[in-house]
């Protein structure tokens, strides 16, 4: 019975409708099973004809069950009908683009996700700032080190005694 959770047990899906079948004919075909609350045949927006299926909503669940048992596989206007319990109407919106509930139903989780995303952006910004500071410090240290090397080179070039010592050091390292 876990599969039946999202099912509307007093509304039936009726598939395989012939083009000639309208809501009145569908109503007449299902009224022997009990009082009908509503009959709908959704229209194709381009052709303004029904899309070969419809929905019949009974006042009582038992009447819907009886109609399904008797009409599934039955013929109407030369076409074999498929009759099942209808799934809940899908409303545009929700996280996946379609939902069985209105868009505001997931508002609490939406706000929660927004707060989490904002926190992540804040942490990422802090990390970027820390990385930038570390890179700036490293560049400064490298620049200072290079500046110190240049000063040593200048000192060696200006002092003949220091040049001689540097040459001796180089020869001894080889």
Automatic annotation (TrEMBL):
Q: Give the molecular function GO annotations.
A: peptidyl-prolyl cis-trans isomerase activity; RNA binding
Recorded superkingdom:
Eukaryota
Residue ranges for the region (Disordered) are 126-174
Keywords (alphabetical) are:
Isomerase, RNA-binding
Decide whether keyword Membrane is in the record: no
Top EC class of this enzyme? isomerase
What Gene3D superfamilies does this protein map onto? 3.30.70.330
Where does the record place Basic and acidic residues bias? 135-149
Q: Which PROSITE patterns match?
A: RRM
Q: What is its EC number?
A: 5.2.1.8
Q: Where is the RRM domain?
A: 10-88
Mind telling me what this protein is named? Peptidyl-prolyl cis-trans isomerase E
User: What is the species of this protein?
Assistant: Cajanus cajan (Pigeon pea)
Q: What is the lineage of its organism?
A: Eukaryota, Viridiplantae, Streptophyta, Embryophyta, Tracheophyta
